[in-house]
Design a protein that fits this description.
about 160 residues; Gliding motility lipoprotein GldH; Jelly Rolls; Motility-assoc_lipoprot_GldH; globular; four-stranded antiparallel sheet; signal
């Protein structure tokens, strides 16, 4: 009886936290099987809610202690409904100077909410596609890291800019 009450309490608390996220417009994760291959592109199809408001965009990552780098390079591409493409190469800090992984979480899995773009207006009607690929290189090596270990999930998030939405 005590265990079922504890599970019910956890379920209610989780539901409250999820439902209180009023800034969220789009939030989706895709799992990475064992390691993130350098040629593997994670894609998200997005239908924006409107074309008049501005939004903040984020790349979300979950990583474990198996992630052995202090930073992360990503190539993020946004494909607009009418064919225009914007491609950015981004660098994020993943660990502090002592090597301790950044992000939130009490276990060895950390969650990172990484800025992608600020104040974006989806002016074209239709579906957008966001493609994310890692671009990690080891110092002194030309070829990229074939299998990036420690990244477990890649996500993309769109938020309202004002918290009162």
């Amino acid at each position: 009886m005590l265990r079922s009450n504890a599970l019910l309490f956890l379920a209610i608390v989780s539901l409250v936290f999820v439902s209180c996220d009023s800034n969220r417009v789009f939030d989706e994760y895709k799992s990475v099987p064992n390691a993130w291959h350098k040629d593997s592109v994670v894609s998200f199809n997005i239908t924006p809610p409107d074309s008049s408001n501005a939004y903040n965009l984020f790349v979300n990552l979950r990583n474990t202690n198996a992630y052995k780098y202090n930073n992360l390079f990503l190539i993020v591409e946004m494909v607009f409904p009418h064919g225009k493409t914007v491609k950015d190469t981004l660098e994020y800090r993943m660990a502090d100077s002592s090597g301790k992984l950044l992000g939130t979480g009490v276990t060895d899995t950390k969650e990172n909410k990484l800025w992608y773009k600020e104040g974006v207006v989806f002016s074209e009607s239709g579906n957008y596609q966001v493609n994310i690929q890692h671009a990690m290189r080891e110092n002194g090596k030309v070829n990229g890291v074939d299998e990036l270990e420690g990244i477990t999930d890649i996500g993309f998030r769109i938020e309202h800019i004002n918290s009162n939405k």
